[in-house]
Structures are given as C-alpha cells and as structure tokens.
Design brief:
By secondary structure, the protein is α+β, with helices and mostly antiparallel strands. The chain has 8 helices and 7 strands.
C-alpha cells in the first residue's frame, strides 16, 4: 500500500534537507547528519508540535531514526520511499516542460500536487517517453526506478574558478521568481558563463554571459551550480 501524501511530503523533505547538510559539509555518507525539527517545520510550513508527532509515527513505522531534542534521519526504508517520491516529482516536472510546454518556473507547484496521484505505470511511461533522463528541468538528479540517485557535488558561482568558462548544470532554488530571473540572466542549465571577480566586501559576484557582464549577490550565486565547460 502506498504511503499517504503527508508521509511522502515529510520523507521527501527530510531527504532533501539531509542532502543539503551533506553537500555543505562536502560529505558523502547519506543520513550522517540529523535534521532539526525546526528545519522540517519551516520547510513544510507546519507547527513544530505537528512535526514531532509525525516523526514519532514515522519512527514507529521504521522509516526514520528520531532523537528527541536533536533531530531525525532517514532509515533505509524511509530513504527508499523518499527517492521514489522524488523520482515522480522530477519526472513530472520534465514531462510538463518537454511534452506539455510548461515554463520551468511554474512546474514545481504542479508536480507537488501530481506526485501523489499518478500511478507507477504512468511514471514509467513518462520516463520512457522522455528517454530515461538523468536530470529534471532545473538540473536536479532524477532517482532511478530502484531508488538510486546520483549525487554529484558541483561548485556554485560562489566557489568556482575565476576567469574560466563554466556550464550551468543546476539551479537549486525552485522559487518561480528566482527561476525567471535565472533564465533572464542566462543562468539556466546548459548556459555557459564566466565569473570575472568576487567582491567579499560588497558580497557580489561579477558574471560574464556572452558579451554582457552583471552582478549577482552571494546568496543568488550560491544557488547556481556549474561545471567546467567542455567546449
């Protein structure tokens, strides 16, 4: 029997929060960092007491390890369910963009609704139609059908080498306004840019895109992940 949409939302939230912690530490061991209750409450916009109650339920079901006053981490069964939800979400996003013509800035909220209702058969058909893609429209990795997810640490515009052409591979902020901004500034996945300078005092990054140079604040620059351009 499939988990409820609420359980799926919590598991996906914990998985994403775990990965954010690990990426920030340069770690590769999944689940090594406990996710605080407050972080989950903030992301899901629910009361802390509701989070605590749900964590106890998930722990009783063998999906998470819950440590009162410290946090929670996914257990293997919980991680498997979380990656399956993430697979549905990200394949739906890509289908909406590539097949239905949605803009990449508007598919996250649509996928949040559809991920709980589409059948496994439909998801696998989407995967087939899309050519078994590895990333969604934002560059986020799509888990495989067996729950494996390729987690690659890419530097952001805040950390990459200066004066070197790089290719945007991922935009981590799903906010529609930020995605429209990224596209407008030539920062969508596949775009090639160059970081000309960083100003620690001003907290800004000078980015060159084509013949144009513009500034990004440090928070925005940290959300754009890149790799060395191959051509």
């Amino acid at each position: 029997m499939r988990a409820s949409s609420t359980v799926e939302d919590y598991l996906k939230c914990i998985f994403l929060a775990e990965h954010e912690f690990l990426a920030g530490q340069g770690a590769r061991l999944e689940g090594a960092q406990l996710v605080p209750m407050g972080r989950i409450a903030a992301r899901l916009k629910v009361a802390p007491a509701s989070v605590t109650a749900m964590m106890k339920t998930l722990a009783d079901s063998g999906l998470v390890a819950y440590e009162p006053y410290s946090g929670v981490r996914l257990l293997p069964a919980g991680r498997k369910l979380a990656t399956h939800v993430l697979r549905r979400h990200r394949l739906i996003e890509l289908f909406l963009v590539n097949v239905m013509g949605f803009d990449w800035s508007e598919v996250h909220s649509e996928a949040e609704l559809l991920e709980h209702s589409v059948s496994g058969r439909m998801i696998e058909r989407m995967d087939e139609m899309l050519g078994h893609p590895s990333v969604d429209p934002h560059g986020d990795p799509i888990p495989s059908a067996d729950g494996h997810i390729e987690l690659v640490d890419h530097p952001s515009l805040l950390k990459c080498a200066l004066n070197q052409v790089v290719e945007v591979v991922r935009v981590t902020d799903q906010n529609a306004e930020f995605l429209r901004f990224a596209e407008r500034e030539g920062l969508a996945p596949g775009s090639q840019v160059e970081v000309a300078a960083r100003d620690e005092t001003a907290g800004s990054v000078a980015v060159v895109s084509g013949a144009r140079e513009f500034s990004l604040g440090f928070p925005a620059a940290s959300k754009v992940l890149v790799r060395e351009a191959t051509s």
